[in-house]
Amino acid sequence: MKVYISADMEGITGLVDAEDVQPPGRDYERGRGLMTEDVNAAVRGAYAAGASYVLVNDAHGPMRNLLPDLLDPRALLIKGRPKPMGMIEGLTVDFDAVVCVGFHARAGTLGVLSHSFMGHEIEDIWLDDKLTGEIGLLHAAASTYGVPVAALTGDNTACTEATAWDSQIHTYPVKQAKDRFAAQLVPVAESRSGIEQTVQRALTTLPTRPDPARPASARPAAAPALAAEADSPALSKTVHQLTVRWQSASVASHLLAIPGLEKTDDRTITTQGDMLHLYRLFNLYLRVATAVTSNPPYC
Questions:
Q1: What percent of the chain has a predicted confidence (pLDDT) above 90?
Q2: Is 115 in the active site?
Q3: 226-292 has which CATH code?
Q4: 10 is an annotated ligand-binding site residue
């Protein structure tokens, strides 16, 4: 069994504030250790469930948060940015399950450090007219590969958001949101045990995925280029609509230089395409928005 772990930071055990998750925050270095240990708990759960291969993608902010020397040596790590596929870089049809560690709720909801990709600049995202955030977009992209999101950890608001997308996702809340920068915390040792047990249970109860096109190699090859993926019969070509409303009209104005985008008002852009194209395109949006603006994520 091949398991893919996407690791964010806002939903990590014990973290509640920008100082915990953003360099050079006064508690950021401690937050990196807590993040690494939450991921290690998920890795242990994966191997306890029978995994033969675990790939971890550092998916938060600078994407250089996880501490390689403290990471479970059985896991491989993708670190750094930019990555064309961002939070799902390295995911392919070869994997049996996705595990999301440390995730947070979408912008506008009362969750710990809630936002959608950019703390200030993105007001709302709609996928096929349904409000979404990082959880929904990741779930939709993983589904295109035919890989289920088996488990997710984060605060209670993120867990509720995940099961609203897919009731089969096993969740473990590591904290109960009291406000955007406050939470009641699950004790650290209890939280790590809960993550491990939740991931093990989720992977042990995975439905069978009959797919003769999937290779049987012990380790999946590197992720193919999207041009090659486009020709794969294993990937869904369903057309979706992605709409993003920005805080800044400047961002929307700059993005209109990308072919295929339309502006529905001064701050809202929309486009259509298959899900993997949209996910990669959205990561391009983020790079443009970062270049255009200088606002810190949680202002």
A1: 85
A2: yes
A3: 3.30.1360
A4: yes
